Amino acid sequence: MFPLRLCPAMFLLASLAACSPTYNWRDVRVTPTSLQAQLPCKPDQGQRQVSIAGRQVDMHVLGCDAGRATFAIMFADIGEPAPAGAMLAQWKAATLANMRAASTQERMFLPPGALGVAESVQVAASGRRTDGSAVMSRAAYFTQGTGVFQAAIYADQLVPEQADTFFSALRFE
């Protein structure tokens, strides 16, 4: 027979386990921009210099891992709005090449407040990580002012509801 004095402790442990969700969505601002987003976990931030379309730019990254997926938002200020479309196209091509994308589906993507350029798209792709394991991704490329952005999810298997929550929350204020 199970001792009754242990019931409250077991109930407490069970309730604490139920309160640790895989996705703990939180509003974040991608500084120094006005982009608002939601991430399912507390994000880490970083910055490094990268080359996009022959330009050296500071790439700002905000991202985290939840539910066996990586969620990331990247931003670079290119200094002028004119080459934004070309920058987005090259960024998309480089991302797909890095993951050795075998199949892709693309559609227009324009979060509220973003600049409408033809290269503002969302791409669903499947490919391979550097270690050869399979990866699926969904990434959006868009621009506002002199900034170019990528919002992406990488996972073994994408969860459509989580991807929809992530991408639908993107907006400029």
Fold and architecture overview:
The structure is a single chain. With 173 residues, the protein is α+β, with helices and mostly antiparallel strands. It has one domain: Protein Transport Mog1p, Chain A, CATH 3.40.1000. Helices cover 21% and strands 44% of the residues. The chain contains three helices and ten strands. Strands 3-4-5-9-8-7-6 form a seven-stranded antiparallel sheet, with helices on both faces. Strands 1-2-10 form a three-stranded antiparallel sheet. A hairpin with a 2-residue loop joins strand 4 and strand 5.
Number of separate strands: 10
DSSP strand content: 35-45%
Number of helices: 3
Number of domains: 1
Tell me the span between the first and last alpha carbons: 60 Å
The major sheet is characterized as: 7 strands, antiparallel
Estimate the mean pLDDT confidence: 87
The percent of residues in helical segments reads 10-25%
How are the strands of the biggest sheet laid out side by side? 3-4-5-9-8-7-6
What is the CATH topology descriptor?
Answer: Protein Transport Mog1p, Chain A
Which term fits the overall shape? Answer: globular
Order of helices and strands: HEEEEEHEEEEHE
- Give the C-alpha Rg: 19 Å
In the CATH hierarchy, what is the architecture at level 2? Answer: 3-Layer(aba) Sandwich
Parts with pLDDT < 50 across at least 5 consecutive residues: 1-20
